[in-house]
UniProtKB/TrEMBL annotation:
One of its GO terms (molecular function) is uridine phosphorylase activity. Its EC number is 2.4.2.3. Pfam families: PNP_UDP_1 (PF01048). It catalyses: uridine + phosphate = alpha-D-ribose 1-phosphate + uracil. This is Uridine phosphorylase. InterPro entries: DeoD-type, Nucleoside_phosphorylase_d, Nucleoside_phosphorylase_sf. It comes from Arenibacter certesii.
Amino acid sequence: MSLHIHAADGEIAETVLLPGDPLRAKWIDETFLENPSCYNNIRGMLGYTGTYKGKLISVQGRGMGVPSAMIYYYELIHYYGAKNLIRVGTAGALQKKLQLGDIVLAMAASTISAFNNKIFAHSHFAPIASFQLLQKAANYAEKMKLPYLAGNILTSDIFYNDDPEEYRIWAKYGVLCVEMEAAILYSLAAKHQINALAILTISDSLVTGEKSTSKERESTFANMIALALNIT
């Protein structure tokens, strides 16, 4: 057991899907997994393990933002031996070519967060995805004809930004979208030599101001989860 995940040895699979919202973890469990069991409800951060096409899969809520996500990423790796961590969630588009519901495969995660500065005091570490998972995800998306783009994303510590124009510099350099947790996932995965990938669904656009309805989010979220499960 760890401080935030009270699972026994063997209760968590080597492959873990990581939505931010614990209720999304519950939805994934009920919608996609067979013979599921709940191994964690500490602080309401639900975690489940079940099977998908005969393979053991876990789903763990991890909250919002780098500090919360880092706790769950670290404990899954350090205490439970997770080998494949797949972040599944939403993001805001920074490019006009991205439509609501499109899927983004994060090849790399730029960030305004300072968590790596303590380790790389006078340098800048580039957090990148596992090529193995990235390649599988791209191949499956093309096979299923799911609209997607692969590229650089931005991990931000700020959800409500006083300066909405700040993101334009990132867009100018080709960054596709903004979210809040992927860069620390890729950094920890690199340190511990495991596989990690962030698969994101565009839920709103900082370019056009469009926003998905709750119903639209649910249907496009299902496409993303199917993609994540079929690359494990």
